[in-house]
Amino acid sequence: MNDLPEDLQYSVNHTWIEVQSDGSMRVGITDFAQEQLGDVVFVELPEVGRTYAADEECGLVESVKSASDIYCPVSGEIMAVNEDIEDNPEKINTDPYGDGWLFQIMPKDDSETDALIDVEEYQEHIKEE
Q: Would you state the pLDDT for residue 1?
C-alpha cells in the first residue's frame, strides 16, 4: 500500500493538503499519483498571487510516461510555490510529502475543506482506480 500520512487531507484528484498554522494549505501530489506518473521530469506551478477556484487546473506535472494536470483542492490565492521543485522535479518521486510539495494556498472559504477526504477515504478511492 502507498505511504499515506494520516495527518493530511486528500482530494479525489490525488493531491494532499497540509493545513499550516496561519490557515494556509501546503499542497502536493500523493505517492499514489507520483507512482502512476513515473519519473517526473517537469513541473509547471501556479502563479503566486493568482486566485483559483476549487478543482480548477492550476499546474502540470510531466513524467517520462505522461502529463497530468494539477487541480486546486480549494478556492483561494496562491501564497507561495516550491521553486526548488522546478529545478528538481524528481523530488516529487523521492519525497512527495516533504521536499516535493508544490504550492501553498490561502483558502477563500474554509467550508470547502469539507469536500476533502481523510486517509481512509483516500485509500478506498485509489483501490477503485
A: 42
In the three-class reduction of DSSP (H, G, I as helix; E, B as strand; rest coil), residue 113 is classed as helix
Nearest to 53 by CA among 75, 28, 25, 69: 75
Closest alpha carbon to 74 in 4, 5, 19: 19
Hey, which residues does 62 pair with through a beta bridge?
Answer: 42, 67
Q: Are strands 57-63 and 76-81 parallel, antiparallel or unpaired?
A: unpaired
Q: How far apart are CA 113 and CA 19, in angstroms?
A: 10
Enter the pTM of the model. 0.93
**Domain extents for the chain?**
11-109
Q: For domain 11-109, say whether CATH 3.30.428.10 is its number.
A: no
Q: How far apart are CA 68 and CA 26, in angstroms?
A: 19
CB within 8 Å of 88: residues ≥ 6 apart: none
User: What average pLDDT does the structure give for the chain?
Assistant: 94
